[in-house]
Amino acid sequence: MPAPLGEQLAEVAPSATSARRGRKKASPRLETAQSLARKQREISVSEFFLKNRHLLGFDNPQKALLTAVKEAVDNSLDACEQAGILPDLGIEIEQLSEERFRIAVEDNGPGIVRHQIPKVFGKLLYGSKFHTLRQQRGQQGIGISAAGMYGQLTTGKPVVITSRTGPTREAHHFRIVIDTTRNRPKVLEDSTIAWDKPHGTRVELELEGVYRKGARSVDQYVAQTAIANPHARIFYRSPKGEEIIYERVTDQLPPRPLEIKPHPYGVELGALMQMLRQTSSRTLKAALQSDFSRVSSRVAEEICTRAGIDPGRSPARLTPQEIERLFRAIPQVKIMAPPTNCLSPIGEEQILAGLQHVGAEFYTSVTRPPAVYRGNPFQIEAGIAYGGDLPVDGLVELMRFANRVPLLYQQSACAIFKAVMSVDWRNYGLSQAKGALPNGPCVIFVHMASAWVPFTSESKEAIASYPEILKEIRLALQECGRRLGAHIRRGRRLAEERKRRSYIEQYLPIIGESLQNLLGLSDRQRRQTVTSLQTILERSRRR
Question: Residue 168 and residue 150: Cα distance in Å, rounded?
Fold first, then answer.
C-alpha cells in the first residue's frame, strides 16, 4: 500500500534540497588591470554618433526625414552663394512604403571635385566650415554625412551623389557608405554619366521616416526656407505628389560674408595656449597682431605690459603661467569690436518680400546694428506680418531662423522664444495670457546672423540664451511692436469712424423727413437737403 501523500513529499523534499545545495552559484568573474586593458579601444566619431543619433536630430522618424532634407538644402544654398550663383533648388521626396522614403536634393551650384566627394559625404567632421569664422549655414561638417549614415543604418542603402563642376567636365556618379568603425568612406561605385546640368550636385538618400503635414513638417521647413532666402527658386515635390514652386522674389544675391580672425575677447585659455604654440610669428607682439582681429601694435604692447611679459618673447617659449597672465590681461585692455563684414543679414526689404508669402495686410521689419557676444559678432533681424488671410483665433506663429535656416524644434529652449515671451505684447494691441505667446492673426519672424551661432546642441535647433543675444532680440521685437501697435490703433479708429458714419447715414433719410415736416419743404428740397448733409459728412471724413 503506497505511503500517504504527505510522507511522499517529505521524502522527496530533502533530496531536492540537497541537490540544490550541491549546485554552486556561479560568481561573476572579477576583472584585472590586464583584462580591462584588453577591452579598451578607440571610438570612432561615426560610431559614437551612430549610437547617439538623437544628438544630430535623428531621434524620431518624422524629425529624421526633416533633418535629412535640411542638411542637404543647407549645403546647396551655401555652395551656390559662395560661388555667386542664384540658387535653383529641386527637392523631391518619394514615399516607397509606409515608413521608407527616397530623398533627392539637386542644385545648380559649382559642384564638387571628384576626389572630395567621398570625404564630404562619407566622413563625419570633415569640411571647410568649422575653421572658418564667417556666417554660413553649416558649422561642424557633420550634417549631410550624418544623414547618409542614418539612411545606411535604417535601410542599408548607400548615398548616391552626382556632381559636375562645369559644362566641359564630366559628371561624376558615386555610391558611398560609411565605415563607422573607422569613420571612413567606402566607395561602392565611381563612374561618369551623362547629365544635362552644366554644373551642380544631386544627392539621393533612402531612409526610414514619417511624413506628416502641419507644424514641424518638411512642408513647413521648405516654406520658411523660401521666406528667409527670397533670392532662391525652390521646386518642391512632397511625398503625396504635390508640386509647389517658390519663385525667387529678388535677383540680388546676399552680400558675401568675409572670413575674419578670432577676437581676443572670445578666446579661452586652452585655445590661446594652442594658438601661441602653432603661430608662425616669432614674437608675442607679432602673434597677437597677426592671429587676432582688432589688435594693433599699441594694443598688443598694452596687453603684454599688463601681463608683465616682454613683447619680444617667443610665443612658443612662454610658460603656462605666463600665458595665463596674458589671458587675464586681455579683458583689461579696451579693444575695438570685431569687424562685421563676416555677416550677411537678410535685410529689411528682403524680409518684407519674403513675408509676402503669408498673405497679411500689414508688414514691418527691422535689422538691428551688429552686436557682439564672447567676441563673436552677430546681428538680429525681426519682422511682423499681421491681419489679412492669417487665422484670427489661436496663438501667433513664431518663425525662428539662424543664418537663414528655419529652426522648427526645441522652441521653448531657444533664446528667440524666451525673448518673445518676455515682451508685453498687450502694449502693442495683441492679447496675451500669462506664460504664453500672444494671440491674434500675426506672424513673428526673428533671424540671427552670426559668424558662430551658439546652438544648444549638435542638432542646431535652438540658440543659447546669452544676455547680449536676448537683449538684441527684445529691442528688435519692441521696435516692430511699436509699428504694429500704431497700425492696430489706426485700424480701430477707422473702424469706429466707419461705425459712426454708418449710424449717421442710416438716420439721414429720417432727418430729411423731419426737416420737411418742420419747415414745410417739398420732396425735391428734402432730397437736396439729404444730399447736402451727405456731402458735408464725406468732406469731414476726408479731413
Answer: 35
Least Cα distance to 82 among 135, 124, 126 occurs for 135
| Cα→Cα distances 197→71, 226, 376, Å | 22, 23, 39
Q: Are residues 56 and 153 in the same domain?
A: yes
Asked if 159 contacts 150 with a C-beta cutoff of 8 angstroms, the reply is: no
Q: Is the pTM of this model over 0.70?
A: yes
SS3 25: coil
* Whether residues 377 and 504 fall in one domain: no
Which letter does DSSP use for residue 425 in this model?
A: G
What pLDDT digit, counting tens, does each position of 482-520 carry? 999 999 888 777 666 666 667 666 767 777 777 777 777
pLDDT score at 405? 92
CA-CA distance, 245 to 234, in Å (whole number)? 6
The per-residue DSSP string of 462-492 comes to SB---HHHHHHHHHHHHHHHHHHHHHHHHHH
> Looking at the structure, do residues 73 and 195 belong to the same domain, yes or no?
yes
In the block, cell 608675442 appears at 284
Could you give the count of Cα atoms lying within 13 Å of 219 in the half-sphere of its Cβ? 13
Containing 111, the helix (H) or strand (E) segment is: none
Q: Which three cell numbers stand for residue 43?
A: 571610438
Greater confidence (341 vs 139) lies with 341
Residue ranges making up the domain that contains 212: 48-246
Check whether residue 500 and residue 463 sit in a common domain: no
The DSSP line for 432-449 is E-TTS-EESSEEEEEEEE
Q: Which of 455, 518, 524, 444 is nearest to 481 (CA)?
A: 444
Given 274, 300, 332, the domain boundary residue is 332
Does residue 114 share a domain with residue 92? yes
Rounded Cα–Cα distance for residues 465 and 25 (Å): 56
Averaged pLDDT for residues 385-397: 89
Q: Which residues contact 500 (CB under 8 A, 6 or more apart)?
A: none
SS3 state at 413: helix
